[in-house]
Design a protein that fits this description.
By secondary structure, this protein is an alpha/beta fold. Helix content is 39%, strand content 21%. Strands 15-16-17-14-13-19-20 form a seven-stranded mixed beta sheet, with helices on both faces. α3 packs antiparallel against α6, α4 packs parallel to α5 and α9 crosses α10. The N and C termini lie far apart (69 Å).
């Protein structure tokens, strides 16, 4: 029998008020139920916000370095359990075990980082032009927050939202993706065991169709941090704006890698294949378009296809596997539909393009890593986010055209350039429309101590991670004191 897991509300593990549950399924083998979880509804969300509101005054008044100490302890708890949580993540999300374990370690690093930031919630002193007046700024927490997180980084993203929120003195209602609740629950367990008071961090699991409206409509809500689809994020933005609720939104990407004529072809193929297909392409920063200088297009494409064909696809717990399944059947079908769209639009299928049905694959949601050539800017596979292992190869006459093609979509999250020419790299850095800009590195692969976010339709503007994360989770107040 699979284990049953509950919500955490006001320091107590509790079932959904109406008793509803749902099953968490292993995408590599849909016969396996990873766990049974509370399918939270509006009553559960209301209880969680009531707990967060009640806990807020004391938590906000706690000295910030003491809040940081709790995050430090939670980091050590996660590290001690990294092997077990990594296996659980692979079972519920599908990514390979090395990727999953590394993500748990990253979550611990994020907790440590913001544990330190809690002791650096600094303002500044500014000279007043009035005699005897002392002027300074300080940061204050906002209050109860909703954190809504996706399934593709099921512990790192909850950590990089939860840690700064708590460090700044806010209380939290965390709603993880319904597809990956167990990994987020393990983060919440660690923070609770580290000493977070009851009501400071609350967890409600289940489908957004049951709880999403209640999360956004609750009158106690002060801010929302969301990572997910553009459609959901746009609707959330409009709802929050109408109520004056602060919103931080991280949404889609259609990330390009530009490969110039002076690039090392083997190195470029390795960088692009990794950025496109590791984590099954289910990263908002994954490379989905590679824009190649015309003189090397044929040679680079040959190297890329050869590198892609060497990728081993299978269950993430199997040693030596490079790429796991799509997260569920629905996502697999979206990927297969886009592959069909690419064929119908006239793109050339260079490798992949099919669901895998061999014995080790037949009970899971596996799709071959797929490369299309001859892709033009008007094609949907060149413009729309697929969120799967599908890569479009496009031709550019020179750097200027490559940048124009790269910028010619609604998204602007991450971009990469592969070149040994410094002037070209600097031109690209100045002109590329992206919030995360890479040179001779994969488009996917950001670090917790640096700001993260995009431009255009990819983000709202508030940055996550690094010291910049504090801006969203605090109110900056200016104080004038006459002695």
């Amino acid at each position: 029998m699979p284990e049953t897991f509950r919500n955490l509300i006001n320091g107590e593990w509790c079932a959904a008020r109406d008793g509803e549950t749902y099953e968490d399924i292993n995408p590599a083998d849909a016969r396996e139920v990873v766990g049974v979880f509370a399918a939270s509804g509006p009553a559960d969300v209301s209880d969680a916000f009531a707990a967060a509101e009640a806990a807020f005054p004391a938590w906000a008044e706690m000295p910030a370095p003491r809040r940081g100490d709790i995050l430090f302890r939670a980091a050590e708890i996660l590290l001690a359990r990294a092997d077990r949580i990594g296996v659980e993540m692979t079972r519920e999300e599908g990514k390979t075990l090395p990727e999953a374990r590394a993500e748990v370690v990253r979550a611990a690093q994020i907790l440590r980082y913001f544990g330190g930031e809690a002791a650096r919630l600094t303002g500044e002193t500014v000279p007043s032009d009035r005699p005897g007046v002392f002027a300074f700024t300080l940061r204050r927490p906002l209050g109860p927050l909703a954190l809504i997180t996706p399934w593709n980084f099921p512990i790192a993203i909850p950590a990089w939202k939860t840690a700064p929120a708590l460090a700044c003195g806010n209380t939290v209602v965390l709603k993880p993706a319904a597809l990956t609740p167990l990994t987020a629950l393990r983060l919440v367990e660690a923070v609770q065991e580290a000493g977070a008071p009851a009501g400071v961090l609350n967890l409600v699991t289940g489908p957004a169709s049951r709880s999403g409206e209640a999360l956004i409509a609750d009158p106690r809500l002060r801010a929302v941090s969301f990572t997910g689809s553009c459609g959901t994020g746009a609707g959330l933005r409009d709802r929050c704006a109408g109520r004056g609720v602060r919103a931080q939104l991280e949404m889609g990407g259609k990330n390009p890698t530009l490969v110039l004529r002076d690039a090392d072809l083997a190195e470029a193929a390795d960088i692009v294949a990794g950025a496109a297909f590791f984590s099954t392409g289910q990263k908002c920063t994954a490379t989905s378009r590679v824009i190649v200088d015309k003189p090397i297009l044929a040679a680079f494409t040959e190297a890329l296809v050869e590198r892609t064909r060497r990728l081993k696809v299978g269950p993430g717990l199997t040693p030596g596997v490079d790429m796991g399944p799509c997260v569920d059947e629905r996502q697999m079908q979206i990927v297969l539909d886009y592959i069909d769209i690419g064929r119908k639009e006239g793109a050339r299928l260079l490798c992949g393009g099919h669901r895998l049905t061999a014995e080790e694959h037949r009970h899971g949601f596996f799709v071959e890593p797929t490369v299309f050539g001859g892709v033009t800017p008007a094609m949907r596979i060149a413009r729309e986010e697929i969120f799967g292992p599908v890569l479009a190869v496009m031709e550019a006459a020179d750097l200027d055209e490559a940048i124009r093609l790269a910028n010619g979509v609604e998204f602007g999250l991450s971009a990469s350039l592969i070149s040994r020419d410094l002037p070209s790299a600097l031109r690209y850095v100045r002109r590329i429309e992206a919030g995360v800009i890479m040179v001779n590195l994969p488009s996917a692969g950001v670090e917790y101590q640096l700001p993260f976010g995009g431009v255009k339709a990819s983000s709202t503007g508030y940055r996550e991670q690094g010291s910049a994360a504090i801006d969203f989770f605090t109110e900056l107040c200016t104080v004038y004191v006459r002695g």
